[in-house]
Amino acid sequence: MTLLSRTRELLDQAVGATGDPRLVRARHRLDEPLRVAIAGKLKAGKSTLLNALIGEGVAPTDAGECTRLVTWYADGPGYMAMCHLRDGRAEDRPFVRRDGALRIDLGHPIDDVDRLTVRVPSARLRRHTLIDTPGIESLSTEVSARASTVHGGADAVVYLLRHLHGGDVRFLETFQGGVGTPVNVVGVLSRADEIGGCRLDAMTAAARVAARYTSDERLRRLCPVVVPVAGLLGAAGATLREDEYRALAQVAALPMDDIVELLLTADRFAAIDDRRRLLGRLGLFGVRLSARLIREGEVTDAAGLATALTSHSGISSLRAVLATHIEGRADVLKARTALAALDDCLPPGSPLIAAAERIRAGAHEFVELRLLHDLRSGRLGVADDRRGELDLLLGGAGGSPRDRLGLPSSAPPEEIADAARAAQARWQRLAEHPLSSRDVRAAARAAARTCEGILAG
Ligand SMILES: Nc1nc2c(ncn2[C@@H]2O[C@H](COP(=O)(O)OP(=O)(O)O)[C@@H](O)[C@H]2O)c(=O)[nH]1
Ligand SMILES: [Mg+2]
User: Looking at CB atoms within 10 Å, which of 81, 114, 415, 457 has the fewest?
Assistant: First the structure.
């Protein structure tokens, strides 16, 4: 029986025994898409990135009232907005769409509102519900308030960083102390196009900064990958209009000296209204890039430019990282949240809590999560040359056999089996080595077990 089906069965029993509505919700959640929160400081680009990920400009990105609320974006049969009040009531609310973004009429003072849910018909949202959050500094500093409000009950977090900041580290530590695990936080170096003054090599410079963050010991423990993304380009790529292409083509057709002059600073470029709008939509880097691509004949129409903007934005890399790091572990992350709900709702000593504990202790997926955590926090004294291999094997860079064995996606099954057999022998030897510490022997046994699992599959 799989981890998820055992967890379902246990939750069914708990619902039958107690009828507790919180457990009913936890049970439903096992069959719903994973919940991924987008967190970070004010103006880090969270709402813009959410739009880029969905591929539609649904989330308002200015400082309007609703950007101060936690808003869930979930798949649905049509566009709908629902306001969840602090007193537990929920009501459908009217909204208008301005430039695509949903402006919701709250109908209540903002302080009475707990959160909003927006339904959008979207195949992407069928894979995960996205939770847009206000900036972390606009929330109460009280840690518990933070934990529930920012995560909004999320199973995983995409955390946006611009410049690494003490507040970011503290937030990530809070998340790890709560629902976090070492594998459910993905870092994004956001507004990457602005790095180094929006020059045309901005994304290359951003990749270097992101690599530096990834190798920062303190950060890696909390968020093992950092992907550079220009959400604004991704959102523009998904929603570019013909008239915008024509305006950009006009800029590109100017004599080169004029373009250089125009693009030298955002202020001069924005002197004309049309251009101000373009700048808001694409940013200075996006306008420069578009002018160059059109000028050099690399793109000749709106569709071509849209594709180019999307490909420069880094949004596909982020989607790939989300697929391996988060969606690839959806089952264990969901089981984890559901078992935690049992702890919250049942009295200590209940046999159902004991059963939850047995699942947690016995399931190899949970053993791997715990070991990854110990490994990355430095609590597990594995020799440096084995650390990277163990991290991969335990699923630190994705759950597929190829990810775990560090093989390319083209590796044929025989190569996977050979690599798994070799790794199993290596870790088995370490597990039996008399000089290894008890913790290391246990970790090595788990690693060998992971290899057996790969071979059995
Ligand atoms: N150049 C650039 N600007 C961005 C990017 N993402 C967001 N912005 C701008 O930064 C401002 C704040 O963005 P928003 O998504 O509302 O940030 P939030 O407060 O984190 O939700 C807006 O003016 C956006 O247009 C980006 O990738 N590149
Ligand atoms: Mg926002």
Answer: 457
- Pairing type for strands 128-132 and 71-75 reads antiparallel
pTM for the model: 0.88
Per the structure block, which two tokens stand in for 412?
């044929």
Nearest atom in ligand 1 to the alpha carbon of residue 60 is 16
**What residue ranges define each of the domains in the chain, with the CATH number in brackets?**
35-230+316-325 (3.40.50.300), 240-309 (no CATH), 363-456 (no CATH)
| Cβ neighbourhood burial of 319 (10 Å; 0-12, 13-18, 19+) | middle
The answer to whether the CB of 315 is under 6 A from ligand 1 is no
pLDDT band at 152; cut points 50, 70, 90: low
**CA 126 to chain centroid:** 15
Rounded-to-5 percentages of helix, strand, coil across the chain: 60, 10, 30
Would the CB of 44 count as within 6 Å of ligand 1?
Answer: yes
Distance in Å, CA 334 to ligand 1 centroid: 31
Instruction: Give whole-number Cα distances, 45 to 62, 220, 251, in Å.
Output: 10, 22, 27
Hey, whose CA ends up nearest to atom 12 of ligand 1? 43
How far is the C-alpha of 79 from the C-alpha of 95, rounded, in Å? 10
How long a stretch of residues is the chain?
Answer: 457
Q: Can you tell me the distance from the alpha carbon of 160 to that of 72, in angstroms, rounded to the nearest whole number? A: 17
What's the pLDDT at 377?
74
A 10 A CB-CB count for 66 gives: 24
Tell the residue number behind the tokens 């410049």, with chain if given: 163
pLDDT of residue 396: 84
Q: What is the structure's pLDDT at 151? A: 53
